[in-house]
């Protein structure tokens, strides 16, 4: 699949609606209309036409190829509330070393959520937004319609980061809105000190909700390309440490793998779909992989 907009181009484009529409429309075109209205980013399945089925549900392209009538049948028939949750803590300001325009995880997350919001909007789903940091909570209730989608984009565009992720105890009001017939996307790097992000997600889980964890990472985290003496700083605590890159590299990879395995195990136990998004890779490729993985997950 050819990339539509790569991260270097995205970093130089300030028009978020343009990016969201371009990526989403190209993605949906590449899926050959397999996403059905009002199904919460689900693939639809096909069945033979039966008397009484709406003619609008017939896949005419499939009819042209097979000379048989098939209708698109969604796995979930009712509209859902799509909730977009973004970690706005300071660690999300980690930059991509491959971008000269200041592209970081928080930028990528906002553009990714804008794209998901556009797809949900085209499916007539209600969309809500929650941006989380200890300094401020950006909350927008789940509603449908073009004006609401545009308002959501303005909110996303104006959103900035704080210092740390808030404790779940201060989010009770928001949680009460999100625990009914909801598909919830949580975008974060999942760097946490006291398990606060996973605790928040655990509070979202219920019979009428489905939670998806989208973990953001960069090539620097995967390859540790540093040389010589280097000073690292924790963006949230401001604590600094001076290390020899060559000596620290092996321990870093071991610790990162252990942390990644633990995170994967936790999400598996909670029945949360876990997707990884590399901010140095194109948005459309990430979303295409997500939809394919989601079909298998379900």
List keywords for this structure.
Rossmann fold; 10 helices; 298 residues; single chain; 10 strands; two-stranded antiparallel sheet; six-stranded mixed sheet; alpha/beta; 2 domains
| Share of β-strand residues | 15-25%
Gyration radius (Cα, Å) is 20 Å
Given the structure, what is the number of helices?
10
Helicity level: 40-55%
The residue ranges in which pLDDT falls below 50 over 5 or more consecutive positions are: 30-39
Pattern of helices and strands: HHEHEEHEEHHEHEHEEHEH
Largest sheet: 6 strands, mixed
Instruction: Report the CATH architecture of the largest domain.
Output: 3-Layer(aba) Sandwich
**N- and C-termini, Cα separation:** 23 Å
What would you give as the CATH superfamily of the largest domain? von Willebrand factor, type A domain
CATH class category label of the largest domain: Alpha Beta
Total beta strand runs:
10
Strand order of the largest sheet: 5-4-3-6-7-10
- CATH fold type of the largest domain: Rossmann fold
* Total of domains: 2
């Amino acid at each position: 699949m050819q990339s539509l907009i790569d991260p270097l181009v995205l970093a130089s484009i300030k028009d978020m609606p343009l990016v969201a529409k371009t990526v989403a429309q190209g993605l949906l075109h590449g899926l050959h209309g397999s996403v059905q209205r009002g199904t919460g980013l689900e693939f639809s399945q096909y069945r033979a036409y039966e008397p009484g089925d709406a003619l609008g549900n017939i896949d005419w392209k499939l009819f042209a190829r097979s000379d048989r009538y098939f209708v698109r049948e969604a796995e979930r028939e009712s509209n859902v509330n799509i909730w977009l949750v973004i970690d706005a803590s300071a660690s999300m300001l980690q930059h991509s070393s491959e971008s000269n325009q200041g592209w970081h995880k928080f930028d990528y997350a906002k553009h990714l959520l804008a794209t998901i919001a556009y797809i949900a909007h085209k499916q007539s789903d209600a969309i809500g937004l929650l941006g989380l940091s200890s300094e401020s909570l950006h909350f927008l209730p789940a509603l449908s319609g073009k004006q609401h989608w545009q308002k959501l984009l303005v909110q996303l565009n104006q959103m900035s980061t704080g210092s740390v992720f808030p404790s779940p105890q201060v989010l009770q009001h928001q949680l009460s809105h999100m625990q009914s017939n909801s598909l919830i996307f949580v975008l974060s790097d999942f760097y946490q000190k006291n398990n606060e992000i996973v605790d928040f997600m655990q509070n979202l889980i219920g019979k009428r909700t489905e939670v998806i964890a989208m973990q953001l990472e960069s090539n620097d985290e995967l390859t540790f390309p540093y040389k010589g003496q280097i000073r690292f700083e924790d963006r949230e605590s401001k604590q600094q440490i001076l290390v020899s890159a060559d000596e620290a590299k092996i321990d870093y990879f071991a610790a990162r793998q252990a942390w990644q395995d633990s995170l994967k195990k936790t999400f598996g136990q909670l029945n949360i779909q876990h997707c990884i998004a590399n901010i140095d890779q194109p948005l459309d490729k990430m979303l295409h992989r997500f939809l394919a993985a989601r079909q298998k997950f379900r």
